[in-house]
């Protein structure tokens, strides 16, 4: 007997589960969280899917196999983040996890090769402690070390509180960490114990500190403008706006105008390049690695970095337009 639903291009939840090699429970779960909704229901209330929903489900199952989180998958499907960006994040996360697994294997191998049972247990204990170290202790370590790196005392007093808050932004929300986050914690701790990193981080913030002190930039005014701009850029990202779009350029114009007012200077290509030097995430390989680890330890930081990149791309486009205008009138 031919199934009428299949003949009409509609598939029951059981058929979808069979086609995709998963379970009815899994298909129902993705419906409940809004990732794969049935196109229709039978008179009896049973879910019906089309080939489009089946393709979407297969994509989700593939991404889950590659260890993508549900929220990242949601953002990929909605277009909030690009596939290339998501792939970069996942490659980074899995690479970090790979380093953690290699470290585990090394410790276990040393434990296996030790001569005494008690010595083996000691090595195993080291492994357990390295993976399950108190989150509270780690947070205190990270907070202390980053505050040290940022040499907060070199900023005016009104900047101290906002800098501390930016440090706290490194820390993840409460809850169990993934293996990738745990590995990133470990690497972040190693990085923050490096005197070379501290020196390079200071150098990467040199322009920012100089401008803040020279022009007496107001911390509250700067941060309020930054948060307002990033909220507007978040909407632009969701709408898939390009750097040269009106929406992005309006944010660039407003932010740069505020910066120019603080410095009491006209908006020129030179001022825009100075602005990028003040606010852009840059530096040595160690410094860039620090920002990457931040986005692994606290995934909320990923979207913030994405909005910053859109801002800088918009500013670069603005610079090109201003320089083209200058050449036209020269």
Automatic annotation (TrEMBL):
Pfam families per UniProt: MerR_1 (PF13411)
Keyword list, A-Z: DNA-binding
PROSITE patterns found in the cross-reference section: HTH_MERR_2 (PS50937)
Domain HTH merR-type residues, every copy: 10-79
MF (Gene Ontology): DNA binding; DNA-binding transcription factor activity
Record InterPro entries: DNA-bd_dom_put_sf, MerR-type_HTH_dom, MerR_fam
Protein name: MerR family transcriptional regulator
Annotated source species: Brevibacillus reuszeri
């Amino acid at each position: 007997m031919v199934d009428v639903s299949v003949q009409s291009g509609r598939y029951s939840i059981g058929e979808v589960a069979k086609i995709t090699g998963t379970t009815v429970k899994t298909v129902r779960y993705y419906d409940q969280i809004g990732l794969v909704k049935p196109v229709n229901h039978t008179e009896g209330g049973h879910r019906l899917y089309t080939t489009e929903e089946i393709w979407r489900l297969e994509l989700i199952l593939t991404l889950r196999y590659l260890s993508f989180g549900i929220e990242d998958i949601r953002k990929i499907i909605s277009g909030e983040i690009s596939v290339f960006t998501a792939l970069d994040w996942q490659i980074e996360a899995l690479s970090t996890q790979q380093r953690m697994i290699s470290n585990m294997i090394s410790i276990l191998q040393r434990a296996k090769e030790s001569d005494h049972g008690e010595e083996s247990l000691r090595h195993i204990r080291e492994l357990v402690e390295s993976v399950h170290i108190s989150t509270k202790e780690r947070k205190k370590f990270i907070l202390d070390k980053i505050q040290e790196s940022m040499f907060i005392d070199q900023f005016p007093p009104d900047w101290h509180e906002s800098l501390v808050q930016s440090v706290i932004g490194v820390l993840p929300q409460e809850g169990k960490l993934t293996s990738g986050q745990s590995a990133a914690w470990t690497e972040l701790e190693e990085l923050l114990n490096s005197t070379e990193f501290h020196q390079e981080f200071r150098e990467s913030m040199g322009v920012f500190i100089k401008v803040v002190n020279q022009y007496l930039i107001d911390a509250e005014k700067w941060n309020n403008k930054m948060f307002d701009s990033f909220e507007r850029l978040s909407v632009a990202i969701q709408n898939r706006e390009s750097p040269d779009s009106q929406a992005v350029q309006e944010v660039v114009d407003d932010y740069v105008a505020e910066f120019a007012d603080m410095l009491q200077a006209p908006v020129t290509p030179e001022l825009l390049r100075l602005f990028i030097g003040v606010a852009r995430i840059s530096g040595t390989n160690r410094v860039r690695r620090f920002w990457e680890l931040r986005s692994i330890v606290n995934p909320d930081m990923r979207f913030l970095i994405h909005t910053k990149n859109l801002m800088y791309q918009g500013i670069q486009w603005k610079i090109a337009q201003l320089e083209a205008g200058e050449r036209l009138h020269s």
